[in-house]
């Protein structure tokens, strides 16, 4: 039995981009893996083990590389159109092959599968913490909005009415007033704000909700544009115009930072043209990203709503001078479209590549054995490494299923989680 | 300036139920508060400070008690009907006074306000971790279900058809097939499971989703029964009947443990009668709790679905002997109704009482000052204590707003978060 082979794809970005050899010294985990090899192997010095493992790694890598190339070719032939060949087809193939999403039974709807949803959860975890740090509170508004609400703000109804889904029957009876299935919540938010806000003491009011929204899109594309999608929508009310503008800018900066630092997507922050401004807003700020096909993707927006909705819904407060004033508002959103943006920014001909901080799985351990005796030793080692990595906060999976061959697993995981751009995934292969 | 006054309502349950005096020694935080007082006060020994503070506390408590009683009477008169007088009215009053929820514009809908939503988030945090520990993956199914799906399982359509909300217009056009707004997801889940499950290797398949659901209820009550509510729904597919039964029992046990240990609600685990079994299930397990009005509340259910849905949707797999078999299934859910259960179990005449582990705020610090010089010292002390408590993982709020009097704050927070039953909230009052 060999001591062990690890294919270390450099270290985590949090230890900066460093070469594998250096990583062994700088990344305590990597060292502990070597010690672990030593423990299972023979009594050689740590340096010797490192050298041994390194040389094994080099030799092994050649074999693996050819195995991977063979596998990838097979995967490509079978399922993933190369990105360079047909970007749109590649995008759909990657989503299917990496099991990120599937088509729902209703045209334009999408089932977000566990691996795709885990990316969304990582997005949620980061943003939710940032919203709370900036003193926004989560809450929940009903998704059914009386049709008359939508009509109250002129440009809002103009923008949204072609995209509405309407509930007309409830509990077996025709409804007196049609209900709009939430396309966005400014109207119902203002209806409630009007009841909650009375004086300047009630301001600012800063809330957020994580919900599903429905827009009857005709041309749909998984994650990018679907009939129903998930998002967060922040809504705030302020006493002054300046404060609202400051809030809108603060939130687009939260989005920019998220896109660049977490999703590793370079974005340009800017202001939307009049035509592309949100229906009901005074100004819309946006982060725009360039996808692998060189097309731009609107990845997040923050709106200064001015007093448009407060005037339509009569949302007033008594200022400190005792005067009635309309509140100043903002709203801002990031949606599951971001998952599409991540795929289209980082993926390559081979399949999906995920930014390490959002990757649901950062390390995959594929144990390899022949005999039952080997199995026991190898699985114990795999579990032990898994536990060490987990303890260090690395999201790790041992794929020990016996129904698939290691070759199949390499190809599958390579396509699903590999992050060669970021040097932030380890693929550890145990050949004991 | 006095050294400082703390009204310590005993220690956290995690330090067990112990008297305040003991708590000072056993709970390092409490000691550090005294040291803090010492630091701000004069050079007296720690014991002396303890005695001083304790005696101050006793004297102060009388004043506070009368202040509280006065305040509570006022609050009761103004807003909260005593529980002993009219349970239903009390329930609605508490929800309004503690700002947990409000009525939405559409009959039977509910806006969950930040304080109520934070309780739901605490429920989610605990359960989501447990679901992941038991290897369930989160995902998302579309909320629009073709009407024909609902009709496929006979008892399912019978049970749910009177409660459906139907979308009949989308994008300005009458739809060819009505869409059901998700009342529960067994049908769409099975539609997808049929595509994903082919062989025994694909089983078990264990998923969960956190979503909104709609049931057109005629008699509604905030949290307990609303037209739209939030819940999690777990769905699993198994190769054998035994495995499905084991899963259904495992999940009702997760719910029981949650109810008892986190929500501090005693529950009885049992099996629903034929009449109350979920529409489409073979067996429904339930946790039933007794509310303050001695009525039972169904607080969570776990269903063994047998092969009812797999036969209706033709969800088959090739077993290890090469035979086609229908899968065995479960589903299980806990909803925002749990928030109602918490209110109705723990609240008293004075208002809301929350189980400490789910309380969004466990400690409220109300600084009191007269002069500007006092203000600076008091706020610095309050912030310092806040930071120490936060570091210890205690959810703490400093209410330093100058627009409300301390008396108003006592009453407000007493009603909103006080936990006298559990001896798990500190109300710290700084009178420097």
Number of helices of chain A: 13
Q: Under CATH, the topology of the largest domain in chain A is which?
A: BirA Bifunctional Protein, domain 2
Q: Could you say how many structural domains of chain A there are in total?
A: 2
**Major sheet of chain A, described briefly?**
7 strands, mixed
Ranges of chain A where pLDDT stays below 50 over 5 or more residues in a row are 1-77, 419-432
Tell me roughly what share of residues is in helical segments of chain A: 40-55%
How many runs of DSSP E, i.e. beta strands of chain A? 17
Terminal CA distance of chain A: 5 Å
Order of helices and strands of chain A: HHHHEEHEEHHEEHEEHEEEHEEEHEHEHE
Sum up the overall morphology of chain A in one term. elongated
Please name the two chains that share the biggest interface, counting residues whose Cβ lies under 8 Å from a Cβ on the partner chain: A-B, 57 and 57 residues
Structural class assignment of chain A: alpha+beta
Q: For the record, what CATH class of the largest domain in chain A applies?
A: Alpha Beta
Radius of gyration of chain A: 26 Å
Quick recap:
Two copies of one chain form a homodimer. Helix content of chain A is 41%, strand content 23%.
Which secondary structure elements does this structure contain, and how are they paired or packed?
The structure is a homodimer of 432-residue chains.
Chain A: H1 20-26, H2 28-40, H3 46-78, H4 87-97, E1 101-103, E2 110-112, H5 114-133, E3 137-138, E4 144-146, H6 147-150, H7 154-160, E5 165-170, E6 173-181, H8 186-196, E7 205-214, E8 228-238, H9 241-262, E9 267-271, E10 283-290, E11 296-306, H10 308-312, E12 316-318, E13 324-326, E14 328-335, H11 337-346, E15 363-368, H12 372-391, E16 396-398, H13 406-417, E17 426-431
Parallel strand pairs in A: 3-7, 15-16, 15-17
Antiparallel strand pairs in A: 1-2, 4-6, 5-6, 7-8, 8-14, 9-10, 10-11, 11-14, 12-13
Helix pairs in contact in A: 1-2, 2-3, 2-12, 3-13, 5-9
